[in-house]
Write a structure and sequence with these properties.
Layout (H helix, E strand, L loop, with lengths): L3 H4 L6 H17 L14 H6 L15 E2 L9 E8 L4 H13 L10 H9 L13 E9 L7 E2 L1 H12 L13 E7 L4 E2 L8 E5 L2 H4 L4 E6 L6 H4 L22 H19 L6 E2 L31 E2 L5 E2 L1 E2 L4 E2 L4 E3 L4 E3 L7
Parallel strand pairs: 2-3, 2-5, 4-6, 5-8
Antiparallel strand pairs: 1-9, 7-8, 10-11, 12-13, 14-15
Bound molecules: 2-acetamido-2-deoxy-beta-D-glucopyranose (NAG) (3 copies).
The site of one 2-acetamido-2-deoxy-beta-D-glucopyranose has 5 residues, from loops.
């Protein structure tokens, strides 16, 4: 989800409002997109177990994903992480291994690399594909909460500035093919967290950071709102009778973050400056390739139903393999197929 998504709540103009209402009607008429158990959704456990929707894997009918001529990440992508707050070694390891799995050929199918394939089919105006290669470049710890335990969209940029201008081991500056992930620990609240978003991406402003760098923020929701942002490994209290699924890496907060991190990285690659691949007519409210498939993890997914997932012998639920680990990651919109897809699709 782009940062712009949330600006709609601050004094939208009438035409904009109408456009938004129309867009929402379209999206939810498709009834297979952007589902999370936000408190205002009216669902119950029966819906979730049997699937609330007959429309499978997104509806192409109303989705007009278009290319707006801006750059995409066609060169080897480098990921730089800022660990904000208190992180356990084991938590960092799960996230690093997910990122390292994106370019790995070593995992068995269905694999994280197979999931990334959908992204590599997107191109720029010269016809260059998004890179298959994505690597962890550098990491920076901000373990003493340099900007406090409540961050705003603007103070996030100051955190990034501190990391790229630090006196010792600053993060490398790579505006062309670098992406910057700010990951916040479970005791940090970020503006709009839980109420509207579990993560978002945008780019930094030269006036604040000195450079235009595509970045994303994703928070560990374990303490604040796991039922929303770590769903289906945690469930909201207001859906009676629903049991959480067992998470593949034994940490519901982190396993929930993985899908959001995947969501944001896929959108950063296809829409790094929010002027490349998105649906909708308003760049302030872009609907991007992962927004279109939020809540869909397998064949048949849509509405409040996750789709068909894989069950491990240990009882954990996942939909793809990485190096040494399994993950549950939402599907992505394929502009070639005109529907949401993933490596565990049954028709592949
Ligand atoms: C839950 O949803 C099912 C199927 O849509 C419906 O039959 C049932 O009445 C609902 N239960 C509650 C408590 O709302
Ligand atoms: C991108 O990565 C590949 C393999 O890791 C390497 O062979 C290639 O030289 C890199 N390209 C650039 C432009 O750095
Ligand atoms: C680039 O993307 C196109 C679809 O847009 C696809 O047909 C082609 O196979 C891709 N090339 C590579 C090298 O992945």
């Amino acid at each position: 989800m782009g940062q712009g998504c949330v600006r709609r709540f601050s004094a939208p103009t009438l035409p904009m409002l109408l456009a938004l209402i129309l867009l929402f009607l379209h999206l939810f008429a498709g009834n297979a997109v952007a589902w999370r158990p936000w408190p205002n959704h009216n669902v119950n456990a029966t819906d979730l177990q049997f699937g609330g929707s007959k429309k499978y894997e997104g509806s192409s009918e109303f989705v007009h994903l278009r290319y707006h001529m801006g750059p995409v990440l066609t060169e080897n992508i480098t990921v730089n992480i800022i660990w904000y707050g208190t992180w356990q070694r084991a938590q960092k390891k799960i996230i690093r291994e997910f990122i390292n799995s994106i370019s790995s050929r070593d995992a068995k199918r269905p694999s994280v690399a197979g999931w990334w394939r959908t992204v590599t089919f997107y191109t720029d105006q010269t016809g260059a594909n998004i890179s298959r290669s994505l690597h962890l470049a550098a990491e920076k710890s901000d373990r003493f909460y340099s900007h406090g335990k409540k961050l705003t969209r603007l103070s996030i940029q100051s955190v990034i500035k501190s990391a790229v201008t630090a006196k010792t081991k600053p993060l490398p500056i790579n505006p062309k093919s670098g992406i910057y992930l700010l990951l916040t620990s479970d005791d940090v609240y970020v503006q709009d967290f839980c109420g509207q978003v579990c993560g978002f991406h945008y780019f930094t402003f030269p006036s604040i950071v000195g450079y235009t760098l595509p970045y994303a923020w994703v928070g560990n929701s374990a303490k604040l709102c796991p039922g929303m942002c770590a769903y289906p490994f945690a469930v909201p209290d207001y859906i009676p009778g629903l049991k959480p699924l067992k998470s593949p890496n034994g940490d519901a907060g982190i396993d929930g973050m993985i899908s959001v991190i995947g969501h944001e990285i896929a959108e950063l690659a296809t829409n790094p400056l929010v002027n490349a691949w998105y649906a909708g007519t308003d760049p302030v409210f872009p609907v991007e390739i992962a927004d279109l498939c939020e809540g869909i993890y397998g064949t048949g997914g849509g509405g409040s139903y996750t789709g068909q997932l894989l069950d491990g012998e240990d009882g954990a639920t996942y939909n793809m393999n990485g190096i040494r680990r399994r993950f549950l990651v939402q599907w992505l919109w394929s502009h070639v197929l005109s529907y949401c897809t993933g490596p565990n699709a049954l028709d592949q």
